[in-house]
Structures are given as C-alpha cells and as structure tokens.
C-alpha cells in the first residue's frame, strides 16, 4: 500500500494512492464507516497502519475502486507530514566496493539531527542561504518508524518500520568544511529537507536491499547505488539509534546517499527510488 499527503482545494489530506489518483482517508471513512485517522502522521502515531495495510491487502484495494477518487492532476504533493519528533541523518553510508563492507562496519555510523523547520514538499524550492557559497543536495531513502522502540535488536528492527519515503537532504557544505562541529548548523537551514509526499509500506517495497537510490541533477543521473552497498543497513541503523534514545512513531531516519550534487540557482534536484514518485525541488 502506498500512502500520500496531498493538497486538494487548498487542504492537506492523507490519502491512499490508487492508479487514477488518490482516495482520501476521510473519504475512506465515509465510504466504509471506518474511523481511521485522516492524516498520515496521525495514522502512524495511532499504531493502526498495520491494521489498515491488512485491510488493504485482504480486499480493501478492490473496495477503493468504488470510492470517489481525486485525479492525480487535481492534487499537489505535500510533505508526508510536517512535525516528526526526530529527524536523524546518516553520513557516509555507501561504498562503491562491496568487498569493503565488513571492514567499514567495524566503525560506527556518523549521524546528525535536523529540525522540522527544514521540511518542504516536492515541487518546493530549496533556498540558497546568503551565508553559504557551496550547497549540496543528496537523494536518500527515509525510514519511517512505526512503533515506539528502545534497545531493539537488528532482528526486531525491521518490524518497527512503518514504511519508506523519498528524501532530499541539503547541506551548506562550505560551512561544514570550516569545522566538523558545524555539521548540525550546515544541515539545518529552512528548506534543507525535501520530504516525499508518499510512504510505501514494507510489504510493497519488495526486496529492501535491492532498492536503488538515485540523485538526479538538472535532468541527468548524477549518482546511484543499491541499498546493498550501504555500510550500515536500515535494521542496523534502527538498532544503533534505539540504544541511544527511544524511537517514536513517525520518527525519520535518513539513511545516507550514494552521492551529492552541487546546487546553483535555477537547478533542479531529484530523488528517485523504485516504487515511489520522483521527489523534486528547484533551487533559488
């Protein structure tokens, strides 16, 4: 199942993606007499996403065909949600040489946090800050946490995932280059986190480690890698961070990038991941 947050008639609405467009969660409730939360964050926080996924897989997908659909052309993408409790980012998490993975995993992940004020949606512009002369953007797979978890093992970690989203993590690279301690500042400018409007559930994502993350820049493929080339895969990242702090439903973990693009005003950067619509931001 694929969820999305869309804007229709000026209102952000949680919805289920269907071939013709979107069935809102509010319309689903009206048509079936259910009482699902009507926004994506609320649905995740309620703990009922797995229940809705089961309904969808056990005949609900066919029932959606009888409900009113908002055509894709009449909806605009919005951020999946705007106020996650935590946004973790992971740095330097891919290697081009799979033979290096075992040695690299002897280290620990490089991680940082971003504020929710950095969030924008697909189609919104990244704004180049006046205090930076070198800004980069990176396509990433975002893990969406689906339940409260603390001290989980890698085996348990995958069960804590609500789904996956596309993301673009933007950095004031010259600020970070001046001093490694400036990383949080370099990552935190407004518009520096383009957050996909869609969430794909784990059962729909297919073989996780075969997913390919692609950074596109001005219409051309700049960087690409499969999750199999991650130094620290999703289950490890959840395990590792849950040993530090309690992870909550809706928390986001950005899993790193195969490569960054240097941005200039007028550019367009995209994140493309199989199963999700391209996530795109202009630059100004």
Give a description of the structure.
The protein is α+β, with helices and mostly antiparallel strands and 284 residues long. The protein has two domains: 2-77, no CATH class; 87-282, Fumarylacetoacetate hydrolase, domain 2 (Alpha-Beta Complex), CATH 3.90.850. The protein is 22% helix and 33% strand. A hairpin with a 5-residue loop joins β17 and β18 (279-282). The protein is globular and about 55 Å long. The two termini are 35 Å apart.
Quick one: CATH class of the largest domain? Alpha Beta
Average pLDDT, to the nearest integer? Answer: 96
Multimerization state: single chain
Indicate the low-confidence ranges by residue numbers. Answer: none
Bin the strand percentage.
25-35%
What is the CATH superfamily of the largest domain?
A: Fumarylacetoacetase-like, C-terminal domain
**Overall number of domains:** 2
Shape: globular
DSSP strand count: 18
CATH topology heading of the largest domain: Fumarylacetoacetate hydrolase, domain 2
- Radius of gyration from CA coordinates: 18 Å
Q: Which structural class do you get from the secondary structure elements?
A: alpha+beta
> Termini separation (Å)?
35 Å
Elements, N to C (H/E): EEEHHHEEEHEEEHEHHEEHEEHEEEE
Please state the second-level CATH architecture of the largest domain.
Answer: Alpha-Beta Complex
């Amino acid at each position: 199942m694929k969820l999305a947050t869309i804007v229709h008639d000026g209102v952000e609405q949680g919805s289920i993606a269907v071939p013709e467009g979107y069935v809102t969660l509010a319309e689903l409730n009206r048509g079936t007499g259910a009482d699902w939360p009507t926004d994506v964050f609320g649905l995740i926080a309620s703990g009922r996403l797995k229940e809705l996924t089961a309904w969808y897989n056990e005949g609900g997908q066919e029932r959606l065909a009888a409900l009113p659909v908002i055509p894709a052309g009449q909806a605009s993408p919005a951020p999946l949600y705007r106020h996650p409790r935590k946004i973790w980012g992971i740095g330097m998490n891919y290697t081009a040489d799979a033979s290096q993975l075992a040695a690299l995993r002897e280290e620990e992940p490089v991680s940082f946090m971003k504020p929710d004020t950095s969030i924008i949606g697909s189609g919104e512009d990244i704004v180049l800050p006046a205090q930076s002369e070198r800004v980069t953007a990176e396509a990433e797979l975002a893990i969406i946490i689906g339940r409260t978890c603390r001290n989980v093992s890698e085996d348990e970690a995958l069960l804590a995932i609500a789904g996956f989203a596309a993301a673009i993590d933007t950095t004031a690279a010259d600020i970070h280059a001046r001093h490694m301690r400036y990383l949080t500042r370099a990552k935190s400018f407004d518009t520096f986190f383009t957050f996909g409007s869609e969430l794909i559930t784990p059962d729909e994502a297919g073989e996780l480690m075969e997913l390919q993350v692609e950074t596109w820049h001005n219409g051309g493929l700049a960087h690409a890698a499969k999750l199999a080339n991650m130094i620290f895969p999703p289950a490890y990242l959840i395990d590792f961070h849950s040993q530090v702090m309690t992870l909550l439903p809706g928390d986001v973990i950005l899993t790193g990038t195969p490569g960054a693009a240097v941005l200039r005003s007028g550019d367009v950067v995209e994140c493309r991941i199989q199963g999700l619509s391209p996530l795109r931001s202009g630059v100004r």
